[in-house]
Amino acid sequence: MSENIDPRARFFDLLRAAVSDATLVKLTLGKPCGADATLQNIFVRPIALKAGPHFAFVSRHATRDLTKNFSPEETIAEIDRRLGDDFLDAHLFTTGQTAQLELKHAGRARLHLTKAIRGETTPSPRPAAHDRAKHHLVSADASWLRALGVTNDRGRPRQGMADKFSQIQKFAELLSHLLNEADLPSDRALHVVDMGAGKGYLTFAIADILGNRATVEGIEARPELVALCNRLAQENKLSNLKFSAGHIADASLPAADVLIALHACDTATDDALAKGVAAGAKLIVVAPCCQKELRPQLTAPPVLAAALRHGIFQERSAEFVTDALRAQLLEWAGYKTKVFEFISTEHTAKNLMIAAIKAHPPGDAAIAQRARDLAHFYGIRRQKLAAHLGFAFAP
């Protein structure tokens, strides 16, 4: 782009055209810089109201989401007001291209434009029917959902698959938020790896929502699932998606931007986390399960000895200590972490998620001491992720 063209002015020219031509698919505002420390992102999408076309602004705060609707004219003004005051990044998605505006220090700005790959088309945006209509990042009509047996020909969950459908949608929503928080490269396609992909429900969802912005690789130990998923990816024209056979611990991963490992059993989660750190991933997302490694090591502190006589409390303590240590070790490795339930327990009992976003240099001494203190309190002498990272509980 010529240096004589103001990047911000060019971005708003594209935005006004997308609003006027009804080609805007969605817009995100990220990299918060305002006075409200709880405000994380704003997501904008077209909706159809009785008063005519509008745009829904979903402001994502730390503990709640707020939605407000704006007319087309108000939408342009609101985004203009927010950029610079509250956010430093805007990502516009239209039917023909994407445009990312990055505001820098001293009033400088950069604009990145990416056109749709030739031979691929982006579907025209379909405004939500009304405020009450449920909006999904993954369309219920997606052909791959039908191919995997999640939905029927009418775009409704098949019998017994309603929980899986909800899980897919919630994961897509959470991932879109995390992708906007992470400092990911915008001048090339992202490399996303899903380790222990299984039947690929969530791997397909990642490829769907990212489109030509990323290449997505699913790694799965069972060759029959790898063959099935590769066939379905080809049949459903997801050219950015492929699956490879292999175990998480043995996978060769020289580089990755985003690493995901959902429900990798016991220390396989530690293997995946270590692979992500070693590959320089800017975003790592895991949903641990079967945290068994530390339970034999737990030495009850005197104040907890009576409670930890009960097996159920031992099991839950082992789960807590395992994932708390994982979070602290990731922080020591240079990441900002979030630990939360990503979906209701009515849909799945395995609902804890650890998200890690690269944020600072590794090796902070204070973080290391906190991890050692926690391990010492519970009598932990060794742990798989610590061993992978070369972290010693006894300095």
Summarize the structure in words.
- This protein is of the alpha/beta class.
- The protein has 2 domains: 7-115, no CATH class; 143-389, Vaccinia Virus protein VP39 (Rossmann fold, 3-Layer(aba) Sandwich), CATH 3.40.50.150.
- The chain is built from 10 helices and 14 strands.
- The strands form 2 sheets. A 7-stranded antiparallel sheet has the order 4-3-2-1-5-6-7, with helices on both faces. The protein has a 7-stranded mixed sheet with strand order 10-9-8-11-12-14-13, sandwiched between helices.
- Helix 4 (162-181) crosses helix 5 and helix 8 (311-332) packs antiparallel against helix 9 (365-377).
- The chain is globular and about 65 Å long.
Question: How are the SSEs ordered, and which strands pair?
Answer:
Elements: H1 7-21, E1 24-32, E2 39-49, E3 52-61, E4 65-70, H2 72-82, E5 87-94, E6 97-103, E7 109-115, H3 143-147, H4 162-181, E8 190-195, H5 201-210, E9 214-220, H6 223-235, E10 241-245, E11 258-265, H7 268-278, E12 283-289, H8 311-332, E13 335-341, E14 352-358, H9 365-377, H10 384-389
Parallel strand pairs: 8-9, 8-11, 9-10, 11-12
Antiparallel strand pairs: 1-2, 1-5, 2-3, 3-4, 5-6, 6-7, 12-14, 13-14
